[in-house]
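Worked example

This section walks through a single chain of length 137. The input is the sequence exactly as stored; nothing has been trimmed or padded.
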Amino acid sequence: MAEKKVTLNLITPEKQLITDKPVDMVILPALLGEMGILPGHIPTVVQLGMGSLRYKTDGKEDEFAVLGGFAEVLKDTVNVFAESAGLAEEIDEEKEKQRLKALKDSLSSQDADIDFELAELEIKQAITRMKVKRKHL
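Given that input, the structure is written out below as tokens.
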């Protein structure tokens, strides 16, 4: 008898990154901490924070950096609607370091036109992508 699976879909405003992928388990970066989803999970909707979305299939784990959004959990389906997401192995750590440096430089320049909330959010996003990348190495 085949082992029960969860169907995973990962969608961002730009594109659908995962479509109908059968997986053993999904671990979401819920706003208040990680949340594991197994087959037969109770239906729920959860707000996502910034962090690592992982899924396991046949002992292998893949990982995405997710930067907010929400997930809809149905009995055996997880639909993730992320504001932004990137596969851990495709994240360019050097590019993220440069982005972080540029953001910090712009904050320290004391330019009156800087949107501090947006800059802070972008810094958190760059740090999240770097953490996911380093953890995946």
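What to look for: The chain has two domains: 6-88, 92-136.
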